[in-house]
Write a structure and sequence with these properties.
This protein is mainly beta and 91 residues long. The protein has one helix at 31-37, and strands spanning 13-18, 21-26, 44-45, 51-52, 65-68, 71-75, 86-88. The strands form 2 sheets. A 5-stranded mixed β-sheet has the order 2-1-7-5-6, with helices on one face. The longest helix is centred in the middle third of the chain and has 7 residues, at 31-37.
Length: 91
């Protein structure tokens, strides 16, 4: 996915902040889709330190948890993006 707001496919794009980096994403997509489109593969770390990311994409597995606007353990596959949101990964 393009992150260029001038791209015709990014009409209606919003900017979110991922680990302090501004990222333009399509409006209305999930945080998980936005992160994957921005090249983020590790959303969190397991207790053993292994990188974890989305598995099911429908909120069952809890592997896609991130912090959103200071709220911990948000299932990113269920959370729609909003302009200006702050997303923190543990990746």
């Amino acid at each position: 996915m393009s992150t260029d707001p001038g791209d015709p496919d990014m009409a209606g794009a919003v900017t979110i902040h991922v680990d302090g980096r501004a990222v333009a994403v399509a409006a209305g997509i999930s945080v998980a889709a936005a992160l994957l489109g921005a090249g983020v593969a590790a959303f969190r770390r397991s207790v053993d330190g292994e990188a974890r990311g989305p598995v099911c994409g429908m909120g069952v597995c809890f592997e896609c948890r991130v912090s959103v606007d200071g709220r911990a353990h948000v299932r990113s596959c269920l959370e729609p993006v909003r302009a200006g949101m702050e997303v923190r990964t543990g990746g």
